[in-house]
Amino acid sequence: MLSLRFQFLRSAASLTSRSLCTGAASKHGKAPDMAEVRNRLREIVGASTNWSDHQQAMAERVSLSSMLAKSQSQLPAKRMKDSFLEVHLPLGSEPELREKYLTYHNTVRFGRILEDLDSLAVLISYSHTYNPALKRSPLSIVTALVDKIDMRQHVIYPDCDIKFTGHVTWVGRSSIEAKMHMSQYRDGSYAPVLDATFVMVARDPANKRAALVNPLMPEGPEEEKLLQEGEANKSRRVELSTASLLKVAPTDEERKIIHDLFLNTLDTNTVSFRSRMLPLKSVWMEDAKLKGLEICHPQQRNIFNRIFGGFLMRKAYELGWANACSFGGCRPSLVAVDDILFQKPVEIGSLLMLSSQVCYTQGKYIQVRVHSEVFDPLTRQHNTTNVFHYTFASDRDVPSIIPKTYGESMLYLDGKRHFNQTVES
Q1: Does residue 92 contact residue 15 with C-beta atoms inside 8 Å?
Q2: 358, 414 in Cβ contact below 8 A?
Q3: Residue 96 backbone dihedrals phi, psi, to 5 degrees
Q4: Pick from 315, 293, 329, 330: which is nearest to 390 by CA?
Q5: Which of 74, 81, 118, 130 is most buried (most C-beta within 10 Å)?
Q6: Rounded distance, CA 216 to CA 177, Å?
């Protein structure tokens, strides 16, 4: 097992020329890409890159259950710096790596960044729970929720080095909050690009039951503040879940919004509840959808033989972006990602159905919801696996989105709530 401190900096090497977009870390040698993070994850759990060996390794992990702690008090408290990671993505110095992240319009594929953040959050969590006495970790750590990703700038340059940093900021009994920051080297220094908060959960080796994680011991007022923010984030998530429109009726204010939308679509000539007219510069919600299908192959598996959460996020983001692009008639920029809930794992071999819906608009902003579900062709059953929420900005005002049915009205209000959270944060 390698050291807890995963500082991916290589030994010094002489370099003849460097771009202005090549960061300081690269000047100390060839910086690794995220492949090294994923290799480390496979090493921690004993996974294999070979499909048949991987299946065998996962079956053997069940025997590690005896290594799980029976109570949290048995586990030593960890500091925030124990889980600190710094990883460099040398897009400026490695053109061959750049191809993987490059878009046709000479920008960075944000879906790839989501994949990297997901892998990094898992490794941060394993760093927090690291036990030097164990050759392999008995914990199965998976992504439960992407709480928030806030963009600090909307342009990510494909030929400038990227740096990821992050560490654990809060823990529960089996849950871990990891905060990460991404910056990019340009004009002689690293500038912030985004801030991300992921919530991870620890489970037993068979990935069936919750497992205990090390408590967190803050050091100093700054870390105490981060811990308090983590507690506040947990309380906010509970409050939002309690107030979900799938559980309780809309507020009085929200009901008035929906009724006003309905009145604005009535045909004044017929004065009928059934006769509806689309207002100017508006689009019916049912006409702002985009769907996709993925066959989940072994190549897209994670270290636990399920479909990699980062892959799901990438596919959902790209579908949501395409929907916002076609709706707004331009290339939208991402403002925020929030409340990505991983309800169920996606098994290899699944038929993954993705449905993107523009659910709220305001001025230049487009709120998109992507719903993913697996379809079993033998039983004909559909099961929701994930729900994704994205806020995009257009370069011009976009049409208003108008719901027709009560179900669409709830989607509209849910989208408005997510948009308001983005604006207020």
Answers
A1: no
A2: no
A3: -70, -35
A4: 315
A5: 118
A6: 11
